[in-house]
């Protein structure tokens, strides 16, 4: 049946440090399944009933408050079959970076960062085992492992997650700062359906340390080279290096060209360009600066070299490149 609905709410699960949600599209408004979650087993029947009610309400154009203005709502013939196709594991929040644009730490505020790096969290394994036993993962389910820094998970935990996912013929996407090397990630890139995403955001050490507020520029590129080598004989693996443009900081041709030069040195074949979240929220419909326009034009000219824009800004690129500059 054709109706307006959302893939996230139908078949996604986000496992956060303190709640279980269906989406992570917004930190202000999100559709939540369980608030104040601490790793306990869930009521599967309750989830199924909530999902059924959500579908029926969507068919009547009755959407939850968190969903009403969401751009992911789409009218089409939906597959209503029960099961997750995408699971995000982000119950841990310790991270080796202190990025100025971090949403979770509200721009890297010291007191929030300290809390995130020292807070205790729950063991995610019982929940994942329960979901598997109840056939809640659809074949080929995609798992995103992030939260904090997955390369710094407690000993044995990341390996357990990788084995768990591959045992189900699932795919993995690691979100890592790349500063800390992980042999578990290396082995996953060698053997399974795996993607690693690392945001470097700079072409020079000075700007990298300005954005990340930690030292690690040389270590990141060294580790990226190793990870990319791991994918050499695995057509199902990929390493993507990201450049998040922060207007007024790294939106200039010198920095962008140095970044691309470094990507070529490590033989990266997948480069993703994005723009800082808060800036987009406040400025997406306003004129842009000459330096930002030149930087976007430069990256746009490299499409044939596997440089692409993130999906959340791809719809803005054309208008930004045509806009008047300030």
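^ Assign residues to that structure.
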């Amino acid at each position: 049946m054709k109706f307006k609905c959302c893939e996230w709410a139908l078949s996604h699960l986000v496992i956060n440090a303190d709640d279980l949600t269906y989406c992570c599209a917004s930190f202000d408004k999100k559709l939540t399944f369980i608030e104040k979650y601490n790793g306990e087993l869930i009521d599967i029947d309750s989830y199924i009933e909530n999902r059924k009610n959500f579908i029926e309400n969507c068919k009547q154009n009755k959407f939850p408050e968190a969903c009403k203005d969401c751009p992911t709502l789409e009218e089409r013939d939906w597959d209503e079959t029960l099961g997750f196709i995408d699971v995000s594991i982000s119950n841990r929040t310790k991270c080796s970076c202190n990025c100025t644009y971090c949403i979770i730490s509200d721009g890297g505020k010291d007191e929030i960062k300290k809390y995130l790096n020292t807070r205790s969290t729950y063991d995610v394994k019982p929940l994942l085992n329960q979901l598997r036993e109840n056939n809640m993962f659809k074949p080929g389910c995609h798992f995103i492992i992030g939260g904090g820094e997955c390369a710094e998970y407690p000993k044995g935990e990341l390996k357990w997650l990788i084995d768990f996912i591959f045992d189900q013929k699932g795919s993995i996407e690691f979100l890592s700062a790349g500063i800390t090397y992980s042999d578990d990630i290396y082995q996953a890139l060698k053997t399974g359906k795996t993607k690693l995403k690392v945001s470097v955001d700079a072409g020079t050490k000075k700007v990298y340390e300005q954005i990340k507020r930690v030292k690690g520029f040389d270590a990141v590129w060294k580790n990226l080279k190793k990870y990319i080598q791991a994918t050499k004989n695995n057509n199902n693996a990929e390493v993507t290096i990201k450049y998040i443009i922060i207007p007024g900081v790294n939106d200039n041709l010198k920095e962008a060209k140095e970044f691309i030069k470094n990507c070529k040195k490590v033989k990266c074949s997948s480069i993703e360009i994005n723009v800082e979240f808060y800036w987009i929220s406040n400025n997406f419909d306003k004129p842009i600066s000459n330096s930002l326009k030149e930087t976007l034009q430069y990256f746009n000219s490299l499409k044939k070299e596997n440089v692409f824009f993130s999906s959340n800004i791809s719809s803005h690129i054309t208008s930004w490149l045509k806009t008047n500059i300030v």
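The CA atoms of residues 39 and 58 lie 30 Å apart.
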